[in-house]
Amino acid sequence: MTRFQFVADHRNAFEVKRMCQLVDVCRSALYAWAAAADARTARQAADEQLADRIRAVHAAEPENRAYGAPRVTAELNDGADPADRVNHKRVARLMAEHRIAGIRLRRRVRTTIPEPADEQVPDRLERDFIADAPNVNYVGDITYLPCVDGSTLYLATVIDCSSRRLAGWSIADHMRTELVADALLAAARPAAAWPGRSSTATTATSTPLGPTPPCVTVSG
């Protein structure tokens, strides 16, 4: 209950001037608040209608349950007349008031797990990720892809430092040595031969074909 509402509820029992002094509000502000009662009622009704539309957007498709305020706002404004468009701040406020929240699909997955027993290999690129010609220096990394069913896929990539193109990649439901080896083998195909050096974020020090080639720098 606001101070204005308190004064309005007790105005028939006590003097308005005295109550305004006690609750430290200005009488002019009180009268302005009372004059805007109809507008507030209309705004609250409009907010309830908008909250129902937000719930409908969330329930329309299973993937919509992950929508936050920006995506919900985009759905509400899609094809709407300029006068019917809504602000994302208003959508965010109503979602918070009605406890409508998008499902957070992202999960923290650790993709770099160093092996204490492995020997640290020096960084042959020395943090220089620029190459003057293609197929000289490569960099690689592993990331994870959360799936709707709760599982996780792992993506290993190899990128040419000169052209910035994707030279090789592999995807699997595990993060074993084969994941990185497949990406390196894909980059080593004749169409993307790599006579130079590369740096990857994998912790593996060997592949199914044997020890990691000397042209590959592996950091833990």
TrEMBL record:
Residues 196-220 are annotated as: Disordered. Residues 196-209 have a biased composition (Low complexity). Residues 47-108 form the HTH-like domain. GO terms for biological process: DNA integration. It comes from the Bacteria. SUPFAM superfamilies: Ribonuclease H-like. Transmembrane segments: none annotated. Residues 132-189 form the Integrase catalytic domain. InterPro entries: HTH-like_dom (IPR025948), Integrase_cat-core (IPR001584), RNaseH-like_sf (IPR012337), Transpos_IS3 (IPR048020), Transposase_IS3/IS150/IS904 (IPR050900). It holds the Pfam family rve. NCBIfam families: transpos_IS3. Involved in the transposition of the insertion sequence. This is Integrase-like protein.
